[in-house]
Specification:
By secondary structure, the protein is of the alpha+beta class. The protein has 3 helices and 9 strands. It has one domain (about 5-135): Fusion Protein Consisting Of Minor Coat Protein, Glycine Rich Linker, Tola, And A His Tag, Chain: A, Domain 2.
Length: about 140
C-alpha cells in the first residue's frame, strides 16, 4: 500500500529540495518516463489517486511526447493542479507551470482521459486536489 502525507482538498508545495531522480517507469521511443514525485506534498491520505490497471507505466501510454519536440530539446516538467472527486473522476485540471503549449495540452489530455482509482483515507474514498508533475525529458546531447 502506498502511503503519502497529503492535506485534503488544499494543494501546496514546499520549496523544492534536491532529491534523487525517481526510478524509471518506462522508456518508449527513446523517451524516459518517470513517476511523479509527490514526496514534497503534505496531504493526509492512506492512498493517493492511482491509475487503475498497470500503474504509472500504463499512464505513460497516454502521453505522446512528439519526436519533433524531443529533437528540438523542448521539454521540462509540466505541473498540473488536479482535483478528483470521491469516485476517481477528474473534476478539474489546470496548468500551473507551463513548459510549452503543446506539452501542456498532452499532459492535460492524459490526466483527463483516465478514470482514476480514488484517493482513500481510513478505507473510504475521498475527494482530493494537489499538484501533479509530468516531466517530458528530451534526449541528452
Amino acid at each position: 500500500m502506498r502511503r503519502a502525507t497529503l492535506f485534503l482538498l488544499i494543494a501546496f508545495a514546499l520549496p523544492a529540495v534536491a532529491s534523487p531522480k525517481p526510478p524509471l517507469v518506462e522508456e518508449r521511443n527513446g523517451v524516459p518516463y518517470y513517476p511523479p514525485d509527490w514526496s514534497h506534498l503534505h496531504i493526509s491520505t492512506d492512498v493517493t489517486p492511482s491509475y487503475p490497471s498497470g500503474g504509472m507505466q500504463a499512464f505513460t501510454s497516454y502521453l505522446d511526447y512528439p519526436a519533433e519536440y524531443r529533437h528540438k530539446h523542448i521539454g521540462g516538467t509540466v505541473t498540473l493542479n488536479v482535483s478528483w472527486d470521491s469516485s476517481g473522476h477528474v473534476t478539474s485540471a489546470k496548468v500551473t507551470k507551463s513548459v510549452h503549449p503543446a506539452l501542456d495540452s498532452i499532459a492535460l489530455r492524459a490526466v483527463r482521459q483516465i478514470h482514476w482509482m480514488p484517493a482513500r483515507k481510513a478505507g473510504k474514498p475521498i475527494p482530493i486536489s494537489f499538484p501533479f508533475p509530468i516531466t517530458f525529458a528530451p534526449p541528452k546531447t
